[in-house]
Amino acid sequence: MRYQRPKGTADILPGQSEAWHFVEETARLLFGDYRYNEIRTPLFESFDVFARSAGDTSDVVTKEMYDFHDKGDRHIALRPEGTAGVVRAYVENKLYGPEFAKPYKAFYIGPMFRYERPQSGRQRQFHQVGVEAFGSDSPALDVEVIAMATQFFETLGLTGLRVAINSLGDAESRENYRQALIDYLKPHYDELSDDSKERLEKNPLRVLDSKDPKDQQFVEDAPSILDYLTESAQAHFTEVKALLTELKIDFEIDETMVRGLDYYNHTIFEIMIESEAFGKGYTTVCGGGRYSGLVKEFGGPADVSGVGFGIGLERLILLLDSEGIEMPTANDLDVYVVGIGDETSHETLKLVQAIRGFGFSADRDFLDRKPKAQFKSADREKASFVMTLGQNELDAGTVNFKSMVTGKEDTIKLSDIYEDFPQIYDQHFEE
RNA sequence: GCGGUAUUGGUGAAGUGGUUAACACACCGGUUUGUGGAUCCGGCACGCAUGGGUUCGAUUCCCAUAUACCGCCCCA
User: Which residues have CB under 8 Å from A423's CB, separation 6+?
Assistant: First the structure.
């Protein structure tokens, strides 16, 4: 094997790509119903676009960015997620201007890149679908976004969703909580895992995410961020909960759910699902939340906030597969044209072309194979009908028309097929 | 970035330091000089991820590299 695909990449082959279309089309249609329109931004951006949005010290920037210098010595990075590019485009195209609807709602679908160690469902090139809505602080928009995500999964046929929400409050709430958390954890410093010791220094909220069982014991008794929300932050969260209840969307509050970045505030949420595909327990298939400051960071107005989510498509399709959800496969073949003898090649090609011209699918043999082998191909491609054309038919100006379902055969004039194939098709399909 | 397991044909896989690398599925051909899903028969790895090394001899042992998978880190 001379060449192999780059580490952490995958070929999506015919047979699988139909499932991708299904998921993507479902997203396009549904998001359209919510009046989110597709935005397509470059797969690569200036390195700074992502470094800016993620913070210079985060692992994403230092470790996971797929970056390089181009021939003009520009520092380029392949996009590791969708939000930064969308925000950049929002600001660069001045979509906050008065002529645009507010909130400005957009979705994206496409490949993302992270230079990390591949594992199942984690690749260096992977795909996400996500949405962003800018320019409204309304809790109703938070809930619309959550509702859209849950409806997306339900439309795909998934059940047993679990919606977890939390609030990080505003900047003041976060600062108060951060200090409280440090005060709580500091006395236990020596008992924490090495990883969490470091987290405590760099990003205390991350300790809440630790997988270490000992850490988790401390986390259980840690103060809750919800007790540190300012009055207005509290009001926002209360309204979100009320609206979710109104929409009959079941949710639970996870006080330990956090985000690493400072830009997140108020509502954050994850949608989880229990599936064999990812071992036991619930796995997150969608993460999202509200953020502020990003637009300003990119040079836009200071007061424009955003809310959105991202969904990893590889994981989602793994999930749909393991849940046995029916997804469309390659479309069936209407007609297979069997040609017998070299002399028929011209006519069989004209036939398939004519049938395709009428909007039906048609195929023929290209390997000079015998009739039996051609019938096998027709069978494998699930052809509804087979037309057989040999010297006899050619002389008579006819074709043998066989239904692969009933096995019934009929002789049809070539001229009739060229004139009105749909009529012949309908007539025989009825039987 | 760290640790572990694995790598045999189109696929699933068995196998051994020594002459022809099981078996099954798929595919191709024949049985039927022009008709599918069945039966039977035949074909299908000069090769065991790649590169070195040990050995009289390696797919089998050792080392390196690549890739996949699992765990950690991280996951905006």
Answer: none
